[in-house]
Amino acid sequence: MSCTERSRPRSSTAQRGDGGFTFVEVTIAAALILILAWLVASLIIDGTRAQKFAERQSRVTEITQDIVDEMRSSLGASIRIFGADPVGEDYRNRLVLQQGMRPPLVGGRLPGIVAAGSFDLELPAELRTGNELLMARFAWTDEFRTETDAVFRVDVYRLEFWYLAVDGLGPREGAPDGLNLARWVSEPLADSVQIDRITDPAEKEAVLRHLREASPGTDGRIRDAVSVVWHVGEDPSTVGTFQSIREDGTLETSPPAGRPATWEIEGDTRLSDPDILVYRHHSVATNFARSVMGVGRFGLVSSDGDGFPHGFEVQVIGPSAARQILLHLSLVSSNNNGRRGFYDMQVVVDVRDL
Question: Whose CA is closest to 284, among 50, 67, 40?
Fold first, then answer.
């Protein structure tokens, strides 16, 4: 073999070796793989986020519907709706929020009752939208048979108060959450008109003792003890609107023993709920929520006090024989990990207002 043949350079194929890659080719391939991996990861992350947001939307929708259904159920048994008039405000101020109940928002109010009109955005200085709901609802009919074999029936009612309360940091700039929804339920109140219809003093005392002692009725059921008789819807400042049942089965116009001299309405801890939304990780949407969440659809938004109306609005229209109540509720998830789920719902309920 000649020197010329020995010094001839090898081809690029020979330099690369059998089945090998150059550094540039390896770099390009690695970059393509990384890009594909990034795209796949992005799709997975976006899909996971979308799935979690859909779950949040489904959850907040379910919770909103459940709460509105509870309000509708109570309104279905209502016999009196209280509005932002002197009598309604007096009842509201006499409610005793038992230990554990959060106070209502500063500036929260009952709705004005419009005898003729329609549901609409209120005008400045017009009091028709509220963010609280106070009603008297039917609880049960008590039936009792006396020793003379006479049977008497007495309707028993409870007051129910739905309102907004501060939760955590409360309403604040840049945050749609910070509000809880609470429900306060009163002690049972017997209908004084039906009590007064019992003309025989001995039978009347027997019925009142039965209510006070919570003895079994004709059906054998034992109900909650009733210590207060109420003249439904009358001005609470009028003597005789509330009467207490004495141990001997007679009535007196002063409050039961151990209570303040001025009549107040006690709550029932078992039936009240101070934290409807806290353990569900949701909040009533605040005035600082995005407009798409529907806050302030009917009431004029205000920053006075703790703000008004936020995501709970109530309007009442129609004469007493044909009342209608608008309930508007907007909830938002309080979990700030990703997009917040929210749901905006409004319904109209026909109610009795005796």
Answer: 67
Instruction: Mean pLDDT check: name the lowest of 23-27, 178-182, 202-206, 321-325.
Output: 23-27
**DSSP-assigned beta bridge partners for residue 80:** 136
Looking up tokens 């919570």 gives 214
Cβ pair 200, 208 in contact under 8 A: no
pLDDT at res. 47: 62
Residue type, 86: P
Where do the domains of the chain lie? 44-351
| Best CA proximity match to 223, nearest among 209, 206, 205, 211 | 211
d(CA 350, CA 317): 10
Whether 342 contacts 142, CB under 8 Å: no
pLDDT single digits (tens) 308-326 = 999 999 999 999 888 999 9
Burial environment of residue 332 by CB neighbours within 10 A (0 to 12, 13 to 18, 19 or more): buried
CA angle in degrees (0–180, nearest 5) for 318-61-64: 45
What are the tens digits of pLDDT across the range 40-84?
777 766 666 666 767 878 899 999 999 999 999 999 999 999 999
